[in-house]
Every structure is written in C-alpha cells, then in structure tokens.
Amino acid sequence: MRRLFTSILLVGALTVSAQTTMTLHADQGKQIIPKEIYGQFAEHLGSCIYGGLWVGEGSSIPNTQGYRTDVLNALKELKVPVLRWPGGCFADEYHWMDGIGPKADRPKMVNNNWGGTIEDNSFGTNEFLNLCELLGTEPYISGNVGSGTVEEMAKWVEYVTSEGDSPMARLRRQNGRDHAWKVKYWGVGNESWGCGGNMRPEYYADVYRRYSTYCRNYDGNRLFKIASGASDYDYNWTRVLMENVGNRMDGLSLHYYTVMDWNAKGSATQFNDEIYYKTLAKCRGIEDVIKRHVAIMDSFDPNKHVALMLDEWGTWWDVEPGTNPGHLFQQNTLRDAIVASLTFDIFHKYTERLKMANIAQVVNVLQSMILTNDKKMTLTPTYHVFRMYNVHQDATYLPLDIQTATKEVSPSFGPLPMVSGTASRDQQGKVHISLTNVDLQNAQEVSITLQGMNAKKAVGEILTSGNISDHNTFDAPNQVKPIAFNGATISGNVLKIKLPAKSIVTLEIQ
Ligand code: AHR
Questions:
Q1: Residue nearest to atom 5 of ligand 1 (CA)
Q2: 312 catalytic, yes or no?
Q3: Which atom of ligand 1 is nearest to the CA of 231?
Q4: Domain span at 86
Q5: CA 412 to each of CA 265, 281, 292, 388, 409: distance values in angstroms, whole numbers, following the listed order
Q6: What angle do the packed helices 235-244 and 201-213 form, to 10 degrees?
Q7: Looking at 376, 394, 412, which one is the last position of a domain?
Q8: Is 311 a pocket residue for ligand 1 (Cβ < 6 Å)?
Q9: 221 and 285: one domain?
Q10: 202 near 154, Cβ under 8 Å?
Q11: What is the CATH number of the domain that holds 454?
Q12: Each residue of 353-412: pLDDT tens digit?
C-alpha cells in the first residue's frame, strides 16, 4: 500500500464475532475492471464548479491557473480516470459558445435547473479541457440536445477536436489554444426522457441518430458516442434504444440514485439503524437493475458492441440545513462510504458490459468526494473509498465466492449480506482484496481460502469510525479517515481477517 498510517486498536470492536468464509480464485481472472468505472461528474450546479473546482486566477484562495490547488491535489491522488461535464440537466440548456473567448464578453444566463443562480460562463470549454489535462483525466462532454441545435453540437466537436484550418479550429486558436484536445467520450443529450427534453424513447432514438451523424471524427480523434439512457427501472427505454439505434451508439447510459423516497429523502447525517440498513438494500438494488438492462442489451447485441455507461449514481439526501435547496449540498458519512464500497463490489462483476460509471458529483454536490467552504476544504468518507479502491483500476477481476449471514431489511429488495467484497490482480501482479462489514454491531471473522496463489502476509488500510453517522467537517476534517490495518494473518493458504463492525478494508496480499 502507498501510505503509512498510525495503527488502530481494534480490540474493543471485536468482542462479538460472526463468521464469514470466502474462496478467492486467484487463478481464474480474465475480465479487466475498466478504470472508467471510477469516473467523476462535475455539473454547473451549486458550488461544484464555482468555488469547488474553479475560483479564478485573481482569487485569494490558492489556485493553479484558476483551479483550487487543494482540490486539484486531492483529485490527483484519486487518479480520476474520466470527468463528465457540464451536466446533468444543465447540459441541455448550455450553449457552449457562451463559454468561450474573453471572460468579460461572455453572456450571463440563468441556471433554471439549479436554484435560478446566475451563471456567468467564466468556466467553459477551454477551462474544462485544461482541467482534464492538469488532472490527467479523460474528458466526457455531454452535448445539448434538449434546447441546442445539431449545428451547435457539430461545431462544438469541431472546436475541440479539429486540428486543420477549419472555422472552429481557427476560433479555438483565437482563444489561445493552438492544438486540438483529444476528446473521446461524447454524450448526445442527458435524461432525454425528463429534463433533457421530455421525449419518448422512439422519438429520442431518431433524434440521437440525427445529432450523432454530425458529430465527426477529426484528425485521428475517434468519438465514443453515448446515447441518453434510462433511469432505474425503465427497461422499455433501453429496449427501444437498442432496437432503433443499435450500433450507431458506442454507449448507452443509465442513472441510478440511492434514494428510498423522492418526496422524503432524509437527512444525510441523522438516521437510525433501520434507515441505514434500508439504504444499503436500496444501494444493492443497483445489481438487479444492471442485470436487467444488460439482459436486454445482450438480446440485441450479443457481441457487446454497445457499452453500458452508468453515468450518474450515488446517494441523494436532503440538503444541509440553511443551504440553497437547488444546490444539492449534502454531508457525507461512513454510511455513504459503505454505499460506495458496496456499489464498486457490484460494478466489478458486470464489466463485460459496464464500461464506465460516474458518481454524482465530484465537489460540493450530492455524494461528493470533497466539500469546500471558501478557503476551507475537507475530504469525505466517500473520497477515502475511491482512494482505497483505486488499486482495482484496470486490474484483472478475480472471482470471490462469499458465504456470509444475511439480514432481511426490506420486502422490495433481497436479503442484505453482512459482508461484501471484491478482488483483483493489478498490472504488476499484486492481488488486492476489498472487504466491507455492513453490520453495525458485530465484528466478522473472515476466513478466505486463497486458491491459485502463495502468500505470506496481507497489509492494508481500514476505514471505520465510532458511529455510522460520523463525518468530516471543516473544523474536524479527519474524523473519518483510513488508517493502517493490522488485523489480517495468513497461515498456509488461508487468510484470516478480523473485520470490525461498519468497516471497509483494502488489503494487498504479499
Ligand atoms: O446529478 C443531479 C441531477 O440528477 C442531474 O443534473 C440529472 O441528470 C439527474 O436528474
């Protein structure tokens, strides 16, 4: 592991133990876990862009070419593989030409989706693509289908990717950027069944075909075109798109939020045990949703030409008291961290079809990695899971059979397993296992038979805290953070782990 942390005394948490057994098939890996499933999403919403990522060069907040330096450094640690922008719902009202050229000349607009805030367009295409370059991240641009024209989208593609002497390449040069950027991922609309135009799938399928026709490949840049997909259980949308668009799209998106009741989402920090377990059951419901969309895609596209792109996911709670309801600023506890780890454990199983996922959102919005307030910044428990799990990026997925106790939580979802896990072998040959004990009271004695590998020891990190509602604040930014884990031993081919209640562990097996 890359970091050394002070060791934790786990004895108190281990008084009651349940048993979990697993078999790791280290000799059976074949599928690569695409790093893009660890993707992020940045929308012009609340203080995600302005104040969160971008403060401008003249700001008193330390910045690098206008980007917050503290946020940049934190994101570099995560190895963000792909960043989706500018929305979300915002994307279908965004006119990219308003966001280029001298900042003083850029027109203002009202952000109708998100609190009616005035958007001054000071963060536009150049600022976004330069940010991606600084982070070493693949950009994913979501084009405006709902209120934009085909011409507008076609010119946007030309502006960012054409190297030649074309009108849009000349405009880009006037704006100080000589060479084109490389942009792979291009979204043709967002939530076109809702905020992106309230279309029926049959109509949108034709609209997609029309818009995507004019998204050209310039000068060696090859666009990976993504159609706006379904939300949750709308299997008909996927069916109609697969039938009517088929191989004209490279990817089809899907959105799934961990929300139990859209009219009463609940507090991010104040919840009881029952709500906690129901949240995890709803989170795990994503597996069935993925399976069903994949089954439909398989029936039309057995060779898996079209990828499933889960380009919005995560928890969605009530906004923090006293904040703008349209800005979706929420706190983030150990519960959110567990939602993230369980979700990745599921994603890893479906990467034959699932090629990208983007948590909503990167800074200050929904289940974010980072919270900022003026000069202050804190990393969330979810951030720590993304950092601990980044060892699985582009690694080979290793099957892990798990026998663990379950809990009946909600009739709408299956029983909730008390321990979840996933494993992979990275490109240097190192095997990593991540484990989550969701049980609020009981520690788990986990016994893993290592098949097809020899190992002597396992070292790693643990993320846990005294209370499941613990979270980081600007005044106490280290309440929930990973520390070194010393509860794993290997004897013969059996790895034994003492996994405390409500904890997440990532181990490197050596
Ligand atoms: O992530 C917040 C919003 O949720 C996005 O703008 C939209 O696509 C979805 O409904």
A1: 88
A2: yes
A3: 10
A4: 35-394
A5: 17, 9, 16, 31, 9
A6: 40
A7: 394
A8: no
A9: yes
A10: no
A11: 2.60.40.1180
A12: 999 999 999 999 999 999 999 999 999 999 999 999 999 999 999 999 999 999 999 888
What backbone torsions phi and psi does residue 185 show, to the nearest 5 degrees?
-90, 125
pLDDT of residue 467: 98
Q: How many domains does the chain have?
A: 2
| Whether residue 381 is found in the same domain as residue 487 | no
Residue 334 and residue 452 share a domain: no
pLDDT value of position 17: 75
Last residue of a domain, one of 394, 410, 435: 394
Average pLDDT, rounded, for the chain: 95
Q: 282 with 168, same domain?
A: yes
Cα angle: 8, vertex 11, 13; to 5 degrees: 90
Which residues sit opposite 444 in a β-bridge? 18, 499
Query: Is residue 445 annotated as part of the catalytic site, yes or no?
Result: no
Report d(CA 317, CA 469) in Å as an integer.
Answer: 13
Where residue 380 falls (left for φ over 0; alpha for ψ -120 to 50; beta otherwise) is beta
CB of residue 93 inside a 6 A radius of ligand 1: no
Nearest residue (by CA) to ligand 1, atom 3, is: 88
287, 312, 461, 508: the active-site residue: 312
453 closest CA partner among 385, 505, 510:
510
One-letter amino acid at 255 equals H
Query: What is the spatial distance between Cα 319 and Cα 325, in angstroms, rounded to a whole number?
Result: 6
Question: Is the pLDDT assigned to residue 12 strictly greater than 70?
Answer: no
C-alpha dist (Å) from residue 324 to 112, 217, 293, 363, 369: 14, 41, 35, 16, 20
Write the residue with the smallest CA distance to atom 4 of ligand 1.
88
CA of 88 to the centre of ligand 1 (A): 5
426 plus 347 within the same structural domain? no
Mean pLDDT of 287-295: 98
Handedness of CA 93, 95, 101, 106 (dihedral sign): negative
DSSP letter, residue 54: B
User: Quick one: which atom of ligand 1 is closest to the CA of 87?
Assistant: 6
CB atoms within 10 A of CB 200: 12
Position in ligand 1 atom list of the atom nearest CA 366: 1
For ligand 1, the distance from its centroid to the CA atom of residue 238, given in whole angstroms, is 19
Would you state the structure tokens that stand for residue 367, as one six-digit string?
Answer: 């289940």
CATH number at residue 185: 3.20.20.80
Main-chain phi, psi angles of 495, to 5 degrees: -100, 125
Best mutation site among 192, 255, 311, 367 for ligand 1 pocket (most ligand atoms within 8 Å of CB): 255
Residues 407 and 272 in one domain: no
Cα distance between residue 211 and residue 91, in whole Å? 15
Using one digit for the tens of pLDDT, what is the confidence trace for 115-165?
A: 999 999 999 999 999 999 999 999 999 999 999 999 999 999 999 999 999
189 and 314 co-located in one domain: yes
